[in-house]
Amino acid sequence: MRGTGTDLLILKLTIVPLALLLFGIIDRRHGPRVAGWLSGFPIVGGPLLLFLTLDQGAGFGSQAALGAYFGLVPWLSFAMTYAWCSRILPWFWCTLISFAVWTAVAVLSVALQDDPRWLELLPFAAFLGAQFCFPRGEPSDEEREHVWWGLPARMIAGASLTVVITQFSAALGTHWSGLFTTFPVMGSIIAISSHLQYGRHAVQEAVAGLAMGLASVGVFCFCLYMLLSITGIWTAFSLSLLACTTAHALTWLLFKQKKV
To answer: How far apart are CA 33 and CA 26, in angstroms?
Structure first.
């Protein structure tokens, strides 16, 4: 099944930005730790993988989902690097160093996708490692003000990423197209805005939630990678979303018990 150009363009320009708007509202009500955990849900990556699959076919979508699954490793590397750097550096240097680390790990992750199948355990191992590597600190209960540009910036970033990735997916190939669907759009926005407005403690709270919530993205991407090769597109996405939602609910039980 392939989508018509106009219909898909409208969806690309609306679904992800509206999802990010809803996410941003929840972020404002419940703080950076819950925001970080929620950013683990495939609000951006899910629609992007759907658009790639509709545009390029199930075979391309399956390999892109594998790329997205491996993309969790650089995403976690970005988050961990930013959290540690925020303890001693201002936001600009944290951002620069974190994206440099993301780029290096992304190149390595793409190279590993063609290696033996046992390396598919790597993103899961990275998720487990992240539970012990983020810097701990006392959660802050301070009242926080939100800048007016926060929600529009998230929506514009989400729409731009959606259009760019889907527009150049054929040139990028399956590995890079999939990996860019897990580009840390939400992670970087949450980390930088939290750092600017509230300081390093808020960054640590956000990363603590992020490290826990990314399990659901991994489940979604891996299920989609497996299912697209054996079933229809909509069935594969529906079952992957069901598995992802279940995983996210389970991480919430752990999230409530985990102290930063």
So the answer is: 11
The rounded radius of gyration (Å) of the Cα atoms in the chain is 17
Half-sphere exposure of 257 (CA within 13 A, CB side): 4
Per-residue pLDDT of the chain (260 residues; tens, 9 = 90+): 444 456 556 766 777 677 777 767 776 777 667 767 777 788 778 888 988 898 889 999 999 999 999 998 999 899 889 989 998 999 999 999 999 999 999 999 888 887 767 677 888 888 777 777 766 555 544 555 566 666 787 778 777 776 777 677 667 788 888 888 888 877 777 788 778 777 888 788 778 777 777 888 899 999 999 999 899 999 999 999 999 999 888 887 766 655 44
Q: At residue 122, what is the residue type?
A: L
Contacts of 12 (CB under 8 A, 6+ apart): 47, 51, 159, 162, 163, 166
Type of residue at 257: Q
The continuous run of DSSP H or E covering 156 comes out as helix 150-167
Closest CA to 154 of 16, 253, 260: 16
Which tokens go with 59?
Answer: 């075979």
pTM for the whole thing?
0.81
